[in-house]
Amino acid sequence: MSHQVGFDDLIKVVLENNPQSDTVMIEEAYEFAREMHDGQYRKSGEPYIIHPVNVAIILADLGMDDNAIAAGLLHDVVEDTDCSSLDLERKFNKEVAFLVEGVTKLDKIQCHSKEERQLESYRKMFVAMAQDIRVIIIKLADRLHNMRTMSFQSPEKQKRIAQETLEIYSPLADRLGIIKLKWELEDLSLRYLEPEIYYDLVERISMKRQERLEYIDEVIRDLKREMDAVHLEYEIGGRPKHFYSIYRKMVNKHKDLDEIYDLIAIRVLVNTVQDCYIVLGLVHSLWKPVPGRIKDYIAMPKPNLYQSLHTTVIGPRGERFEIQIRTFEMHQIAEYGVAAHWLYKQNGGSEKTKDANQLDWLQKLKELQQDAVDSKEFLDNIKLELFSDSVFVFSPASEVYELPTGSSPLDFAYRVHTEIGNQCVGAKVNGKIVPFDYELQTGDTVEILRSKNSRGPNSNWLKLVKTPQAKNKIRAWLKKNKREENLKAGKDAFEHYVKAHHAGAESVFLNVDNINRICSKLGYKTSDDLYVGIGVGGVSAMQVVNRMRDEFKAALAELETQDSAKEVDAQLNAKSNRRGPGKKNIGGISIQGMGDVDVKFANCCKPVPGDPIVGYITRGSGITVHHRECKNIQSLSDKDRARLIDVNWEGYENSVYEVQIFVEALDRPKITPDVMALINDSHVHIVSITSRVKEHMALMEITAEVSDLQELNIVMEKINAIPDVFTVRRD
Predict the structure, then answer these.
(1) Among this protein's residues, is 226 annotated catalytic?
(2) What is the pLDDT of the chain when averaged over all its residues?
């Protein structure tokens, strides 16, 4: 039998990595793929089979199992030929069919747009990935070979695919710890996104190649001498930094290539963890370490299971360079990531290694899939949860938690346990009480203050959390415990949005039958469920309206025939602050006889709806709204009083206003948490809180958000009733 188009190369790589491999099945997969793709050609003019063979070679080089390699050969047959998943299952097995199905795009289903189809494809791939990690490894191999051969695509497609690779696939390779794929994907992306920069880097770095090699040899020679003296078994070598990492360093630090010194890294491999730390000591005895550049990923591994010691030192010629120290086993994981942990039985079953189970972020994929409203939200959550920069914080018991940058104490609470989040009444960071909007930093120790008497989360918490996990848990609690309240809030918000933005089309958007028809398409059983979803933030009024516009185009078109196109367009795009002539309304303030003018609230008195108010015409800054009893208003001269105008509260119902509350209390244990708990239980959002002690008195300055004066007075009365509280007042 004639083996064409790189098949012999594939088998060679397969047997090098797994001498017990079932090459018969791999050969059958190759022949089937070659037959199905017969007559198909790539942009280069080569037979299409070249692509799946090269994908399979990449997978074999990663040490993947036979089913994964077979799926690599077959990964395009369902998408590009008449073959079905059922055909693959009959011909091979369920595992192969599942893997191929997982990487197959959704080109054959009905979607509203190309973008929606792409988003659904991502969603399908990530869901399959959560069930079997091999799905994404096959997809990464597919993307890598396509990137290697992208010179035949149009410049527009090159840039689009390269950008997608940087946003989705390179971060995935990093998360999986397959660094060799990550580096090549990034370098190839840079080549097509910034070709001039890429080729300039290649040329300038190659010119200094010999000089760098001589420097590496000198460093290695000195380090070998020290290691031989303590009789360690080791391997040592140098590697240049990849182009994209150099490019990012140039951009982030605003430096030219000549100003970047650590273009090389020395890697030392030893047998044991103890040996790693011995080598670190030897390195620092030879060369001075750069402060702040010692990283211990052995004691605290990265989420992708990567372990190593990193240190940057000042070398023999005064130039900085990095040394990485790890065991041989750690190096295998560093190069191949999760692929190094994925063991498969040759009888068709599979089992994960213990370490592979540590990739708990895969479980998050299932949670994100279950809770996302649509594919766009799902992908946004994926990017946030898995691909964003991270901070590492500690619990009081010194347990380490990884959270996205920008996370709050509430995110931490819900990451630890749902009930801890639901019972949260305050938080301490590094021993000090912080507001809920505090941004956690790496190294922070976070303590959550809890109360079993807490009334649970409120809708304002949704603005304070960053992680999808926390948002979903808060929404679930609100949906379960505040249904009636959220139903009313959601219905009011929807009707308000329609009237504000689509005046004249209420007969379509507020029609009960139309709303019921759209519910199932948005994942809700009834209109009440939909309104609750809007109330808790699970779906926005704008999302519902946009979906209805697609669904009821005919009805909206009929409206357009009844009125002039200009009138209807004005109605559908009316602003929410639309009022009668000569009347201005901004932020809940109505001003008679004024045109466009800036309106703001005075920081000195912070009025809220219900307070008697007056407007002051400032020089060049519009109108500032004050409390009528504000000391600054009372102290105005007769000349300046001429600048006062009448203003009134109007249309403030859906707004919140900042107010400052001052509390004087006995400095007893938990007095500040007691105050915070009461405010949170009142469903009033605390913007900030500062507390200091003076002569056995706790003095608190609280900035909170309230809807009106009545809500503020109720909260102040409750605080005043707390034992050991003496004074509660506004500024």
Answers:
(1) no
(2) 79
